[in-house]
């Protein structure tokens, strides 16, 4: 009996060797890609932005991934809401502009009109039996953590509350609530989204591939993380950064898709933040009394990652566009009252992760090219790639 | 057991909810698209042109859709014939130029030579057992209605005769036989052909989407069609347009694929044709004594549509190029003896359906984008979209 | 029960009519294409270059086809070796530059380092149980015939030795060992690789399609091959070209994929080589005492073809890039001590097969367009296309 591509996928999941990379099929099958969107992306929390982007009533922006589009809007009651950007009539995109201020959403095809809360207002020529109450925009779940907005298209989104409750006191001094977007950039990579995410999940490649990052960040060498860790802890105490770590990932996750990770590691002596010369890039965030010279790896859910310096936050997501097309999207945040030119220089602020992302585009592309070989056999993962099996575990649990 | 894409399609057909739009699968599956070509397009009548384009012996032109190509030619006996543009040897395109005058068709690969009637002339080095009579170009059925040429690749083309016989007296005064092509244009749309066709089939979207059309055409509002219908009938009588309507579509169709539809509706006061200022665009067609200020929606088969004004005819077809690539092809016809510059201005003539097609490109594109969502659920159709279920009925009966 | 595309392929193989072309499915199915790569290309010998390209230790070049990439390198022991260009860790391309000189191969992702012979040197952070001996680059088989390098990704490559042993004395006087590359060119064709190869395999199309070739080469007409064959044999004897022919193809092949073919045919009077004016293009190859005015069709395996004139050799391969994208790659060789400008003019040398390949690009493209029709029915092959069924036989025996 012929096996379809999803059956091949399930057989490979059963045969998956612990501590090894995934087989080719996961990165080359169109059916697997579509399943990734419908069962993994549509059922996980996705970081889409920050409350400052929907500060006033009617402010909205779109977030697109794969064939999906989500409207994020502040409604008339002041709530941040999210809706599927698909008309309930014949499926047109309802909202076309990437961001703006709206009084309501009028479908450009047949003018079905939806309130900011998604409710359908009328149904022109729909007959007397038509009940507009049945045809509001499909709601998308929203979770806001200290100003960061996450959405999930599924009704039964992974339960994040318990994990975020434990995270809250650790990130509190950084005052994420009052960040502002300093810059956004997108790096298109001709590779499957999982290869882009796996690249982010490990620093085994940092030393050979990222010279600039490795000059300042100890994570490229576990021994050096230890070596400079004590001094970092001392400075963390001085400036007001909590010392705790949190690892609710892999086997420790409270539920599938509800991973949270927070761990701060030292920059090398001479670097107080992720800058080229080691000097500060912006005023300390939130309540911090200064620069501690640390960087926190923060993960929320399985798709959303942040690097938290003392003076800025960099957010990362790996947005699928097609089977082998992915956008690495990066957002740089500084404290909300910082002014460009006076308090920070945008080019200096974004330098490190701009050059590092150009490196990554290259190595992820070469990774996909090799994985495409019919003769590729996945090899063993190193000790420094420990978080990749955690991702696989999550991925397998939901697809 | 895995289901292939066509089985998924058949299950969806069984579950299709009356009066609702079609599910995503019909617009996103490559297998469904290929089936559309092989079972629907290849078995339906397609309007390809007008006899004036093959006026003399040897005149030919090509019509292409999906992966198919048809040669339409006037042969030595004076008959309009159509052949599959595929060599019977190893399958090369036989005819490469889009139009011209030929004495015969010589395959550019191995020089197999076919007469204008499709007969293979010789078979160089084919051995003594070879019978050229077995290897003529595959014939394509031809139906000519008052000068309009239709082709069908299937041997058992839908029987159009009876329906066309009933149509003939209604269109006769417009003298389609003596039309000439004033202009042709193609509007590429990144959407499945069915979304482009469905867009044409309903005027529910006219008011919100087509400001220019809606300024002059009452079809955008059924109440106004009624309001101005009486006066139109009076003028139709005066200029010589028959008053009858004909609706052999949907359940009234005489056979699957044999739909014919003819219904004239009023333009708004001040408009005698589909012009920007309401003034005539060209001399009245055929035997008409003047401009009645009406517009006839004419459909022949399930794929071919025309809008018949008193002074010009606009033909529309929605030609598949790929799963989500379609060309909206439009041809403007005026009476055969009209001269550009003297009797009509091409820019004025084509203005309305040029701007309207630009609108349509945009809304059909947004429709496809939304339909691509894994979460799209087809909604209920309005009363003004009554002809879409008729199309679905036809479509389901043949795929 | 639904049939998958490979099952459809197998059914078509069972139903294949002897002496007829292949059905559409073999040229339009993505599954068939992927199977072509994994079961035919990866298990056949592919001509990739000449030993002069890896003259010194560490010299390497890449050969890519479909999603595959092979490194060909001269190792420290002086052996020509080939490796799969895929890291044994997570599958990155190991070697990025198309050619160069290397001391070792360092994967650009995580710096796994391989010796020129493919052995993995170290395994940074791989734990104490890690055995680098298990993770060398996958070896690719290498066969060198008189300086021409062939590779095969399969462990059980077709046994070529016996056939090449019989070929050796026939080609020996041309001294392939000491050729040098005069020029390389690639002609992209939007067609399946099999259509490009089939085009090369027959000269039925030469007369109608290749005017320049047909002006000088008798192969376009079997009768003329005979007519001028006697005089050619006489001149072959004079300049030192062996008179024997060798046809180990089709039913005569010693093993599937082990075909060898060598047959010399006359140019027309006035032509001593494949030049525009008939005059010599370069000094006679190897031990030849002059120009005999012949051209040898040489085939080695099922994928590699050469045309051997008295003063240069032209090599051809038809490299798959995607289902309907193929590169016709051509290499012109002259004797190793010939100097451009003094001994040969590159434009004159490459003229014939440049213009002929432009012809071929066009006719193969039109062939694919027609074969894409759902209504294409494969026709009978002519007597001059006798070698195409031989290719099908080989193809069917391995897929």
TrEMBL record, chains A, B, C:
Keyword Signal on entry: no
Question: GO terms for molecular function, please?
Answer: 2 iron, 2 sulfur cluster binding; iron ion binding; oxidoreductase activity
Annotated InterPro entries: Rieske_2Fe-2S, Rieske_2Fe-2S_sf, Ring_hydroxy_dOase_asu_C_dom, Rng_hydr_dOase-A
Domain Rieske residues, every copy: 45-151
Q: Which PROSITE patterns match?
A: RIESKE (PS51296)
Cofactor(s) it depends on = Fe cation
> Mind telling me what this protein is named?
Rieske 2Fe-2S family protein
Q: What is the lineage of its organism?
A: Bacteria, Pseudomonadati, Pseudomonadota, Alphaproteobacteria, Rhodobacterales
